[in-house]
Amino acid sequence: ALDSPRADIRGLAAWALGRLGLDCAAAPLERLLTDDAPFTIFLDGAMRDSAVSAAAREALMAISAQRRKA
């Protein structure tokens, strides 16, 4: 999904991997840090505009936090 031609799929996949905190996802997520394609996500009861790179960055921060807990 991270290689999808659709920005919404890449962005949502990055968001989901961050929620899962999967360490093995870090390297593939790093490749998305320069992907500024826009997508929309439903969070906290509202539609929010974001970018794939922002979702990847947040996912990597979540994975890093999981590493520190381990």
Walkthrough of the structure:
The protein is an alpha+beta fold and 70 residues long. It contains three helices and two strands. The chain has helices at 7-20, 26-30, 52-69, and strands spanning 38-43, 46-51. Strands 1-2 form a two-stranded antiparallel sheet. The termini are far apart. The model has no long low-confidence stretch (mean pLDDT 95).
N- to C-terminal separation? Answer: 27 Å
* Poorly predicted spans: none
Secondary structure category? alpha+beta
Estimate what percentage of residues fall within beta strands.
Answer: 15-25%
Give the overall form: globular
Q: How many helical stretches?
A: 3
Number of distinct beta strands: 2
Give the strand order, joined by hyphens, for the main sheet: 1-2
For the residues shown, what is the average pLDDT? Answer: 95
Helix content: 40-55%
SSE order in H/E notation? HHEEH
Described by strand count, sense and barrel closure, the largest sheet is: 2 strands, antiparallel
Gyration radius (Cα, Å) is 11 Å
What's the SSE blueprint?
Elements: H1 7-20, H2 26-30, E1 38-43, E2 46-51, H3 52-69
Antiparallel strand pairs: 1-2
Helix pairs in contact: 1-3
Task: Give a quick precis of the structure.
The chain is built from 3 helices and 2 strands; from the N terminus they run H-H-E-E-H. It has helices spanning 7-20, 26-30, 52-69, and strands at residues 38-43, 46-51. Strand 1 and strand 2 form a beta hairpin.
